[in-house]
Amino acid sequence: MSRYQQLHSGSQNPGGQMPAFPPAYDDSGALENAGDVFTSGPPIEQFEIDEDEVYEPPKRESLVKRAFFATRTFVYTFKDNFGVPLSRYLDPVYEGYNYFNMKYELSILKLGNPLVVKRLIYVLFVIVLMYLVTRSENSDGVNGASGGAFSTGKFYDVDMLADTMKQYIEAASLKENIEYLSSMPHMAGTTGDLAMVRYVETYFHNNGVQQVDFHELDSFLNYPDKEGTYVKLSDGSFSATLSEGSDKNMQNLAFNPTSPSTNGEIDARYVYVNYGEMEDFGRLDKAGVSVKDAILLIRYGGVTPESNKVYAATQLGAKAVIFISPTIEWAGEKHDDMIQRVNVGHTRVCYGDVLTPGWSSHSIGSANWEKSEITAKIPTIPISWKDGEVLVKKLGNSGADFGEGRFSGDGAVSLKLNILNKKRNTHVIWNVVGSISGREQAGKGIIFGAARDSLGYGASTSASGTATLLELVKVFTSLQRRYDWYPSRSIYFVSFDATEYNLAGSGEWLEEKRKQLFEGGYAYIDVSEIATGDLLTILTNPMFLSTIREELRKISLTEEQKKQKSNMATLYDLYKFQHGDKDIFSNNLVEYKNYIPFINRLNYPCLDVGFRGKPIPRGSTLDSFGNFVKELDSSMLEHIQIVELLARVGLRLAEDPVLPFDFIGLASDLLRYQQDLEKYVNEQISFFSSNAQVDYSKLKNALESFRQNFRQLHEFRTHWKEFIKSTSSMEPAMLAGSRKAANENMMNAAFTFLMRQDSQPSRAGYFNLLFGTPYNAPPFDDGVHEWNTFPVVRDFASTGDFRKVQIEIDRLADILITTSEEYSQVP
Question: What pTM was estimated for this model as a whole?
Fold first, then answer.
């Protein structure tokens, strides 16, 4: 019997029942038996254990296996903690869905064919959804009324967009940009100018301007030479200091842009001619003092542009002109050693490259210097007031008396003059053009333009204007990023080079892009001299009147401005306070600025805004950033106000669905301009002792017809706004077509007042019959006449040709009637 059987049998009681308690075991016997078991096989070899041996733990499982087990653990845990409870909650929902779905299907069956009924319900759902979406867009967001699925897409709430602009205008960035842009000399075409243009280009790119074009153009440029230029008395007793400061760096040297050099030394008598006005030359004539073959001393300033003075001196036979710079109180000091550098190219005949008057420098070759009608034919150079006083006193008390102890002299004292300028007949200049494309009428756009070059450092002039242009770029691109906004029509930002050289940058760009600008542009805003005083100055085309008045009311005054008068709150209040409680804006855009080509060649409505009123050291190295901070807007608060105003006006022009051109204001102002024209012509008739009679009845009737006809466009704008507000904000396709056609008419109406392309105006750059600069207009707004109106009529009146005055008045009347009949209609 086996041992197992013996144990099993021994554990049973005689009756075959299990014992009440387990049997007791004999440990000794068990060990003996166990010994038998373990010794029944071969002997086990004994090993000695080395206690000094290093213990090695078992190897860890591989990373893959551990990741597998961790993932499986996470899945089981997630299932237990989240999956199972979620299933408990969703099961009743699913049962409820099945219940309602069954009820829904039964209801559909009761209505009719399930397929048809379901489609009708789907269509109803889509219609309701579209309605709710359009209503939500029209309520609280920056998205305004919708153009509808069949029209132009959405319109934007211009007021809400404009109200967010101010938060993007920063005094710090304006100040930093002015400081950098005036940190080095940057005459056109120099390395400093190239550094500035690259800075502007990079700024455009960094702020997200979509399209940035770098335009290289050619133009005549000249630079002063420190060797070989002098002005001294023939007896050697005095020599003028022809530099500002002690060093002879180019930016400090005396010279006039676009002036020729002398052909060898000029040794001639000199005559003082005061401001070089027509009346001043008349005094010389009465005193018997001849200017033929003489060197003329002429003061900067007066009501005649410097280039016109040079032309008059040339016609009278003078050999050269020396300009006397004024004194100036600047940065807490009086300066009598300032030397101003002023362009002497004949801008009133044509702007742009002086060797390519009226055509692009890239199209055909340049003209000879002597044959060009806009080059100065005699050399010129500026000197300081301090040196000018010495030369005037040398003349004694002889000749014509100009008051204040200054006499013309009788030709008894002589000067030696030698001018050596470095000239470049074709030198590269650079414009930078950035643009934000429009979403509806991308081919149409407005232009912000700023001069970039300077004859010194240009802190208060070109640097301030360029910094403002950059800030405008930042404002509009910030609106894009925040609201995913694109203007209805395009916006262009242009940094112009060679403004100090007869407006070469803007003039040549316009000549090269004439066709595109003629077809695509409709407004120009000049960005220059933003804060050179405290007098808010607004020069504008009448088409902008209502827009400017409206936006002025939305810009708050600074605390300092509020102190001028109680109860003033906005720029509109300040403007009225500073201008005799009137809100009449001047249209005298006659300064040598980059709006000149746009007005006189394209008849663009233009705008020039800034705080003005103080004399500034224009074209002098005194116009540095350090002096700017001491003398002008160091807090940048006035800059911020002008940036906001320009941005608001630009936004309205680019975004308003119906162009905000004020034809009612234009018609009213044209009637006022006609009265001023009549006054000017009568003055000229009296001056020439003429008995001419000029009839204005045809012009008056045409202006009245113009006002009545263009009232239709004004009414259309009003009715369109009321319709959009009163409906579900959906613009029908036909109404959208009428709106676009009305915009086109308003843009194209201005071009009817330009001379035909095949005609040749008496002045190569001046084609505008309605607005533009007469030849004899002052270089600033003198408040005497509305100079920037009826330029051709005024030109003929100033020469005494009153027969042509009548012809041009009647011609203009015919154009006004034709324009009002063709372009005032709304299709």
Answer: 0.83
